[in-house]
Design a protein that fits this description.
There is one protein chain. The protein is 33% helix and 8% strand. Helix 1 packs antiparallel against helix 3 and helix 4 runs antiparallel to helix 5. About 16% of the residues have low confidence.
């Protein structure tokens, strides 16, 4: 499981689909609907958040927005409904309540996006109704250290060199120029790699 602190726009198609599915799994874990992954280090900061479930929903919405911008059709109704981040204006069709969670579907639909790229395995939904959200409160951002963001950029660069070399340049440039973008759920603070991170020694 990898819940990236980096902005989802850095991910290749395979990485974006993996992030979506793993975040759906994390949503299920936080709902107590599965016995696996409960102690996974990637969930530490979500569990420490003021509202872990709302934070995970906000994380998923960020992935969904990026997927939508690429022409992919991730099933937004898989995201449990909840409050928005401050400044988040793109409301999504609310999904189930926490008690209604079911296994993330592995079904996919073949096709392509507007760039002619083969569309990855994604979860489909039909065009929805009027979006609705809980406007009575907002989801606080979660701090992430600059060291963690830099480490994730190095890790993703390692993966992209193998899977999608054309995407490496932007990430390396942003890392070199200290202009990395983070997922909107997180706010960057000074510091080294987070203590919960399982650092690889082969990068």
């Amino acid at each position: 499981m990898r819940l990236w602190s980096l902005d989802p726009s850095y991910l290749d198609a395979k990485g974006l689909v993996a992030a979506w599915r793993e975040a759906l799994l994390a949503q299920k874990v936080l709902a107590g609907a599965t016995h696996g992954y409960r102690q996974h280090p990637q969930l530490v900061r979500f569990r420490q958040a003021d509202d872990p479930r709302a934070a995970l929903s906000a994380f998923l919405r960020g992935i969904h927005r990026e997927a939508t911008s690429r022409g992919y059709t991730f099933d937004v109704e898989k995201i449990v409904k909840g409050p928005l981040l401050s400044g988040e204006t793109e409301l999504t069709q609310p999904g189930p309540d926490w008690v209604e969670l079911s296994e993330p579907s592995a079904e996919a639909s073949p096709g392509g996006n507007s760039d002619g790229e083969a569309e990855p395995e994604v979860l489909q939904r039909a065009p929805g109704n009027t979006p609705v959200s809980d406007g009575s409160r907002t989801v606080p951002t979660i701090p992430v250290t600059q060291g963690q963001l830099d480490y994730e950029a190095e890790l993703l660069t390692f993966k992209l060199r193998i899977r999608a070399p054309k995407l490496v340049g932007r990430l390396e440039s942003d890392l070199r120029n200290a202009t990395l973008k983070n997922h909107p759920l997180f706010r960057v603070i000074p510091g080294d790699i987070e203590p919960w991170e399982k650092v690889r020694d082969d990068l």
